[in-house]
Amino acid sequence: MTETAHPSGDGAGSDVPYQRTPQESVRGGPQGSQQAESTLWKGHPALRSTFYHWILAIAVTYGIHLAFPYIQAGLAGAGNGLLTEDQMASVLYWSHLLYALPALYVGIKTLARFLVSYELTTQRIIIRTGLLVRRRNEVALHRIRDYQVEKPIYWGILGIGYALIISRDEAIPNLRMGPIPHTSAVLDQIREAAFAYQREMGYREFESW
Length: 209
Prior knowledge:
Order of helices and strands: EEEHHHEEEEHEEHE
Strand content: 25-35%
CATH architecture of the largest domain: Roll
Strand order of the largest sheet: 1-6-5-4-3
Mean pLDDT: 83
Number of strands: 10
Number of helices: 5
CATH topology of the largest domain: PH-domain like
CATH superfamily of the largest domain: Pleckstrin-homology domain (PH domain)/Phosphotyrosine-binding domain (PTB)
Number of domains: 2
Largest sheet: 5 strands, mixed
Distance between the termini: 48 Å
């Protein structure tokens, strides 16, 4: 298993300049000290978000059950004269796997959500994804520009939603976290951590017109 990282830096290509105030010392300099990075929150996309997928899978499975005699009759007709009796029996036996396809699809969707993790620290947001190849992306808190909450009605019923982070990060300019529970509370925590880190680092934003 390998892990690739895409950290966000303070590259010169940033569209909005930053300026360090005279009162703040250089990061790690002798006149000031930077607090050690610590974890504020960890989470995964809510597995309850697959609820509607499971309902759909059950409905599709029931539909397959109703249509299964016709499916087997069609397979028998297609194989008539082309397959031996034993081969046809084998085909009809393995056709029962059709019942497992909806559950397999939803199981993969559930696993994909479980493999995504979010971590908020005092300096950045870390996103980890992937199974065989784990990928790690980071968004520095001082590069965040805006925050949004997105709650479609079908997610609101389940108490989950998306936290949208708009940043100057080139790799992830629009980070969509979720669907996660307590979306507004998590977004408020990210906002407070970003403001605190910007004050600690002495960054100020100036927009040119």
